[in-house]
């Protein structure tokens, strides 16, 4: 099922688009888990909890007088989720060529000036297309995790690690572009893809993005990404942070290194106490 998000600050246009979506569901095979309408961009961004091509966004380009605000939001959504479906709905048809410069790979561009019947058809067409392709556009190099409460689809190469959240029954997915939190179990995630490695009961890592340097007992991800204290403590229980001297500008904790995925178990045994 789709998760449908609408960003539109005009009440009349909100109602028009929402009615078109509901009519599409009545007349076609399209189904959604939820439909949420927002007038403020920050509220929409804060509500995103999943990732994948089941995430559908109708975005107005002009929000609160800011002509290209919708494009900026689309760019942020795309940075978080390369598979999300984005459709612009606006009166500014002259901005259509500009959307390509934002590199958000929008599925379509719907003009609010269309007659009601044409507007309905345009909305239905994009929803049907997205719904029919939910299970058909998953790339081989993607990680997919589906449960009754969560649907996550991200490029495997972007995954750094998964860790248990402070919120009960939730898991945090840390990627190269950010993080998302969803309902699930670390143990189930470890079983979902054989390329992942469960280094501890509370964390699962992507070996492709980890390396090790056996000199001076310094460890870290290949690139400089923020690593949470709970994740580091889970990976290396009892390890004294005062032993680690090297500092980078991007890591929350001063850690560094170069890693070999087939050495993880050995390394953990060496430094655990």
Automatic annotation (TrEMBL):
The UniProt entry, under PROSITE patterns, shows: HTH_LYTTR (PS50930), RESPONSE_REGULATORY (PS50110)
Domain of life of the native organism: Bacteria
> Which Gene Ontology molecular-function terms are recorded?
DNA binding; endopeptidase activity; phosphorelay response regulator activity
- Specify the HTH LytTR-type domain's residue ranges: 143-210
List modified residues, type 4-aspartylphosphate: 60
UniProt domain Response regulatory: residue ranges:
3-127
One biological process term from GO is: CAAX-box protein maturation
Role played = Required for high-level post-exponential phase expression of a series of secreted proteins.
Q: What is the name listed in the Swiss-Prot or TrEMBL entry for this protein?
A: RevS
Higher taxonomy? Bacteria, Bacillati, Bacillota, Bacilli, Lactobacillales
């Amino acid at each position: 099922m789709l998760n449908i998000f609408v960003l539109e600050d005009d009440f009349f246009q909100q109602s028009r688009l929402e009615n078109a979506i509901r009519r599409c569901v009545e007349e076609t095979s399209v189904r959604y888990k939820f439909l949420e309408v927002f007038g403020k961009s920050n509220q929409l961004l804060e509500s995103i909890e999943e990732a994948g091509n089941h995430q559908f966004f109708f975005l107005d380009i002009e929000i609160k007088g800011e002509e290209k605000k919708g494009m900026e939001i689309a760019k942020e959504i795309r940075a978080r989720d390369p598979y999300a479906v984005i459709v612009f709905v606006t009166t500014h048809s002259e901005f259509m060529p500009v959307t390509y410069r934002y590199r958000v790979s929008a599925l379509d561009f719907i003009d609010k000036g269309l007659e009601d019947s044409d507007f309905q058809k345009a909305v239905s067409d994009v929803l049907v297309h997205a719904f029919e392709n939910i299970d058909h556009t998953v790339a081989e190099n993607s990680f997919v995790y589906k449960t009754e409460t969560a649907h996550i689809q991200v490029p495997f190469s972007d995954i750094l690690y998964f860790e248990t959240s402070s919120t009960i029954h939730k898991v945090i997915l840390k990627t190269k572009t950010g993080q998302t939190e969803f309902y699930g179990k670390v143990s189930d995630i470890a079983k979902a893809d054989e390329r992942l490695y469960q280094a501890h009961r509370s964390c699962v890592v992507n070996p492709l993005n980890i390396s090790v340097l056996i000199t001076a007992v310094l460890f870290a991800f290949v690139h400089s990404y923020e690593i949470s204290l709970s994740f580091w403590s889970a990976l290396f229980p009892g390890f004294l942070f005062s032993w680690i001297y090297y500092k980078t500008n991007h890591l929350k904790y001063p850690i560094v290194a170069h890693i070999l995925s087939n050495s993880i178990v050995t390394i953990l045994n060496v430094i655990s106490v």
